[in-house]
What does this fold into?
Amino acid sequence: MAAEVHFSPPEIPEPTLMENVLRYGLFFGAVFQLLCVLAIILPVSKSPKTDSDGLESKTWETVKKAKASAAQLSKKAKKESKKKR
It folds into this structure.
């Protein structure tokens, strides 16, 4: 009645190269995604303004002025066309 039962672990084949590449690729992809999400969520302290910041604001101001002048020209053209009627 006291038969011996041998419990041996199941035989698991060694992972192939492709399975290893897939496993570690997914792992590093998940870590990269977490870093990207944390970079969006966590605020980054900004350094003092440099010369490049000044250039960017100047170009933005010139773009705004160009748009404003284009809008004024279109308004003038509309007024002139109404006057001709």
Remarks:
- The helical segments are 17-41, 51-84.
- Residues 15-42 form one domain.
